[in-house]
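Me: I keep going back and forth on a fold encoding question. No explanation is needed for now; the record alone will do.

Assistant:
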Amino acid sequence: MMDESPEELQEIRREAEQIDVHKYRRRYRALMTLAVLAFCAAAVWVAIRMAVAGRNPCERVRDYYCRKAPDPAKCKLYEVILKESVEDESARMRGVIRDQCLTKINRLKEEDGVVLE
């Protein structure tokens, strides 16, 4: 049995036609797109940070003295140090040289406020 009058049925039909049945699907897709974009941005950021952190610290110091703050004497010195940090026969010695370059990077940061990338 129907309790609604024809006018009420027509009003219900009009309201039903105005309902957007895809509203939540579109919202879900938009949120998933946003989440995927955020994940991709984070992945790119991590990859860039890893690439920068993976560089030889002696190369970073050499780049600083040869390009950003041109000092011919220190540039030549760090060219030699970089070469030794890569080509020395002893892995332990290469590690010691790289540690010294890291110490130089930290000292430049603390004393001069220079951040090497």
Observations:
- The chain is about 80% helix and 0% strand.
